Amino acid sequence: MISFKQLPLEVKAAVAAGVVFFSMMLSRSYLAEQLELRTRRWLLRLQMALFANALMLIGSLHVWRSTVTTFSRSSAANSFCFMPWKIAVFMFLALAHSSFFTLLFLVAEEPYFFSLAAYTCLGAYIILIFFLFTLGSVEQAYKFLAGRGAKAGTGNKNSRTAMKPVLAVMLTVVLTVVGLLNASRPPTVNSVEVPVHKLPSTMNNLKVVLLSDIHLGPTVGKTKLAMIVRMVKALKPDITVIVGDLTDSEADIIRPAVEPLGELNSPLGTYFVTGNHEYYTSDVSNWFELLKSFNVRPLHNENVKIVSPKSSDDWFCLAGVDDIEADVLRYSGHGMDLKKALRDCSSEHAIVLLAHQPIAAKWALQERPDINLILSGHTHGGQMFPLNAGAYFLNPFFVGLYKVGQNTFVYVSPGTMYFGIPMRLGSRAEITEIILRSP
């Protein structure tokens, strides 16, 4: 029988990931209500960091073997540049692995340089793993199709083996630079007209500005939020809505970074619903109080009547639901409750719902098909290659405007900033200006 010590490192890492994942499920299911809130918060984050690192270790071993071990068996090992290259690869992997721990130790009003470097390496790591896997698969497919009859010389074989990691690294460097430059640009302003069934004529052309997925935390701080607020104020919206994932940290730690929200002065109000990352902070109640101090109203499975400035008899129902992750985490007093959120919202008036995740939008429409418009986020438009494909297939609505049925629309924001990795590839940060049209 093979002992644990004899197992390959990749298998050991996979076992470790499985153990951490099991502990996460155990914590969520049985310990959630027994642990103190602060203890639960730290435990959840530590478990997520350890789980991610255990999985990454499998990829890191492959990266090391592809970019270092491969060359150590060739004449390149005697080169002056080989030792600095080994150190560079090791530092790159160490920074990528450390990124998940910055949420525990390095969150402030403005991002630390270390956090930006670590998350940049994490983004490059994801791209590099993709290209190493893709090029390796292409190589194996070529060998299979070519057959084993024609055997190439040792020199040619070594040359082809070296070309794979070199090409992967070059592509990774180029795409990392492009992604960093793309994410550093201000969000684009996208104006969308949406016909809203039963919207009063006095509210025609009402302007709603949609923000989502700002992710104040290790790599997004006060400066970027202040820029977003300036751009929103320039649009002069009637209503501003933030559909979740405003933050990745506790309210007390990052309070100074949130202050620009107090400058939002939309005449019909600024509203907020939770995203999954608010529940990862385990600090939702404090966030609600902080947002209220900046005149941002949380919609905690509740609704408000948005009354026309021209006629008090004309109004529509603006509702918001808690993110579905609250149910998974068994977060006390929270969870998606559509019936409560839409209480007194009849189909005689237009209904606009704020729900962070597109899957929640789908569930809401299955229960209440009379909802006229749902505003969501969460997907980030995939944020960066090659994660875009996963986000596309895992969500019923990916990004942009969707028509569902005859009188219902769903709009999914690609996000106003980014989560952690300060890169965007195949997507663009967006502030959405939604113009409501009466029929």
From TrEMBL:
What keywords are assigned to this protein?
Membrane, Transmembrane, Transmembrane helix
Entry-linked CDD domains = MPP_YkuE_C (cd07385)
Among the GO molecular function terms of this UniProt record, one is:
hydrolase activity
Q: Membrane-spanning residues where? A: 12-30, 42-64, 85-106, 112-135, 166-183
* InterPro entries per the UniProt record, alphabetical: Calcineurin-like_PHP, Metallo-depent_PP-like, Metallophosphoesterase_sf
Positions of the Calcineurin-like phosphoesterase domain: 206-381
Record-linked SUPFAM superfamilies = Metallo-dependent phosphatases
Q: What is this protein called?
A: TMPPE metallophosphoesterase
Q: What is the source species?
A: Sula dactylatra (Masked booby)
